[in-house]
DNA sequence: CAATGGTTCTGAAGCGATTCAGTGACGACT
DNA sequence: AGTCGTCACTGAATCGCTTCAGAACCATTG
């Protein structure tokens, strides 16, 4: 509690408690080797002096940093507007906080950058484990990590992308089923999708699932790829509405695009949901606040973050982790989807 | 490049290059004390062995972590939906990355938590500097930091809240002027505001500025406080619209609430902007995607993050930093504001 | 009573870098 | 030829902690 002008070390605490530095270490870390009375005394003195073990020294001595690495792909626009990353961070942070770990965050401008950050972390041991996000198909980072088995890593992605790495897996295919099924049950037989960039692994997974499910149900399906921005979403919507026959329902890969689509519809006198049903893949406050409220696939991203954190802690402890499923998607039906218009 | 099974240290590099460990250190850090030829040789060997200095050892030896601390207040909902924090992180991350620093992130569940994280960072030297966000009036953290001058800190807040600490200051009062002026010029004489939680320092600053500016202009003004959620925003809107005379313009402290307000208006047959003008304090894709597009106060948060990072690096270098102004707010006029309705 | 065993505690050797003081070697200058 | 200075390099101390091996002490036990 008392604030100290000069740096206080374990030896100061040792001297003040009349024991050796090793005793202090044992006392503080709850290890055997000191009596209860000296332990209490030491803790007391440590508190008075406001002493905590120096992080660097501790890391060096036990080769543990109590840090977990997260690399953010640099696109401020996207990061800011997509609730995904921030939710994940919330979950990670909350869980790690309980275990006294922290999150080390770095930003990569491109994929080379990201590779070099990974190399850096492996070489410098600046983190105890790391998270792999936004995997692409045949992602080279997977091999990098396999060649450095001393650095635990958890991939958050569809299990088909992670080649046996410990994985927190989302079941995007099941979600596709939910979404399509919902629209199918409402009578839609011609649906479209406005997706994100084609290179992203999850775009690909979803593409495949959509094609498969719609084919099975005999539903007409087409897909446009965009850069996730509302402008692109609006543009794609206009194009979709101008073909003949126009889709009666459109699913957007994120919520801003769905919101923009509602605007396009309003401007063009297309009523939602009477003339056009709109769905969003991601759910957020935005979908709730929009008018009409946007039907969305919802998942507990914060919880995913917590699970991811706990899995990494397991990996750090040397436990095996294979593939763990994320909390499943849930369909939140709001007012933007309705029965398909009579033809 | 070559991947190494076992941990490689500076001594391995020294042996392989036929020099001492000190020579390796000098060579790597670009310091004098080695010839150009041995320097080249050492760097070459280091690259071949894939060696980089161990982070903990380096930190311990030079008492520098190359890390900057950021504490996130835990409210996943808010964090996720407000683009502010993620944008700030983007800016911080981008700037820090260039200087080879990283961001150490922890999450606080409440303010006691946050205090103990700060104490921890001060005592363990786990970061070289830290950021102070969401200051409240008379925030105790300011005193904590003043008592520990060895830990550089930068506050991001209105300068009136930071009691002389190095500050990246936003001029919320000027922004209030912009906003009110815009509405005033459109003929509005009865405006309302839906704000965030009253405890937040910036809420208070804005409250005061609004009262002052509207009084000056002879504009009727009232303010409701909420928890920032769209539901609360919608609710506040309904209440405001039911009073007599109802305001002809409402300013919302964030964009989800403004979006929700558009929904409320639509449901109640209130036309935007003919019957009611709506503005948002924060700008994001959401305001652009909404229909009608929401007039908003826009500021370059990413740039603020970059500036904050560079200021902290200055502080770490021992330079003085007083109060630096953030990039100013800019009014982005869209379709949600228009001339005040004739009475 | 010697032997054994169990606590409690200490000294010193790590961890892997940086950095200071010191040693040769060599060239330049008087 | 002798001295000085510079340059390249090395050995050892240092950062602050953990942890192992062993010392000191006391209590049991056969």
TrEMBL record, chains A, B:
Residues 8-62 form the HTH lacI-type domain. The keyword DNA-binding applies. PROSITE patterns: HTH_LACI_1 (PS00356), HTH_LACI_2 (PS50932). Gene3D superfamilies: 3.40.50.2300, lambda repressor-like DNA-binding domains. One of its GO terms (molecular function) is DNA-binding transcription factor activity. Pfam families: LacI (PF00356), Peripla_BP_3 (PF13377). This is LacI family transcriptional regulator.
């Amino acid at each position: 509690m008392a604030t100290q002008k000069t740096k206080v070390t374990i030896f100061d605490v040792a001297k003040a408690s009349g024991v050796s530095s090793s005793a202090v270490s044992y006392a503080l870390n709850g290890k055997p080797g000191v009596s209860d009375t000296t332990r209490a005394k030491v803790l007391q003195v440590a508190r008075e002096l406001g002493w905590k073990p120096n992080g660097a020294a501790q890391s060096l001595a036990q080769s543990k940093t109590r840090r977990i690495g997260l690399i953010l792909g640099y696109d401020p626009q996207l990061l800011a507007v997509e609730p995904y990353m921030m939710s994940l961070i919330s979950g990670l942070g909350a869980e790690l906080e309980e275990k006294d770990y922290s999150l080390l965050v770095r930003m990569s401008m491109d994929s080379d950058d990201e590779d070099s950050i990974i190399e850096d972390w492996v070489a410098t041991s600046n983190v105890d484990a790391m998270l792999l996000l936004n995997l692409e198909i045949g992602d080279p980072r997977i091999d990098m990590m396999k060649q450095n088995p001393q650095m635990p890593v958890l991939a958050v992605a569809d299990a088909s992308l992670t080649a046996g790495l410990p994985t927190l897996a989302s079941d995007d295919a099941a979600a596709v089923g939910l979404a399509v099924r919902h629209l199918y049950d409402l009578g839609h037989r011609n649906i479209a999708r406005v997706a994100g960039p084609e290179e992203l692994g999850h775009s690909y997974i979803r593409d495949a699932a959509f094609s498969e499910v719609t084919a099975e149900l005999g539903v007409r399906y087409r897909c446009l790829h965009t850069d996730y921005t509302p402008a692109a979403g609006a543009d794609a919507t206009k194009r979709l509405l101008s073909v003949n026959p126009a889709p009666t329902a459109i699913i957007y890969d994120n919520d801003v695009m769905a919101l923009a689509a509602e605007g396009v519809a309003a401007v063009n006198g297309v009523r939602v949901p009477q003339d056009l049903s709109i769905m969003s893949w991601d759910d957020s406050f935005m979908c709730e606040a929009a008018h009409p409220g946007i039907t969305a696939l919802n998942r507990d991203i914060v919880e995913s973050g917590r699970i991811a954190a706990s899995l990494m802690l397991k990996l750090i402890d040397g436990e095996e982790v294979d593939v763990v499923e994320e909390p499943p998607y849930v369909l939140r039906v709001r007012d933007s989807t309705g029965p398909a218009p009579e033809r």
